[in-house]
Fold:
Amino acid sequence: MNRILKCNRNLMWLCVVGALVAQAGAQILTSEQITKIAPASYFFAGQSASVQVRNTTGVKNGAGKIVLAGLVDTSGYSTAVQEKYQGFLITETRLTFDGATLEPGEYGFGFKEGKFIVMNVASTDLFSIASQNDEQLKHPVPLKFEKDGAVYRLYDGRKYVVVKAD
Structure:
């Protein structure tokens, strides 16, 4: 019986250590890492737009899966598309945004009128959730991820949404 209890305790510690190592592997990508993997252009709604690499951000989860978000030059798009499309989202893992789920894939997104809109590459809306505003943010930038406990915040200036990467 003592052997079984000792084995269960060891297994429990192994699980705890494994979870901590996985979380420790999660990280926000550096600008050097982004430069190496960000696309030069992104196809959306029948056109290809230049990616603003300086306004591209990314995270790597504990399993090594990457999530990239970046702004694009939307000047060639119609006004209707420009109103809601600001950038791309490429994910190798499932993402959760306030109850809405995205499977691995490529998407367009935008922040508009207090909402965060996610679209497929054909510009069809998949979901829209309320964005939040962070008045305490000291140095807002066009786009960035910030770690917030077990989740991330995707910021567009002071506006943000909470993202959980599986």
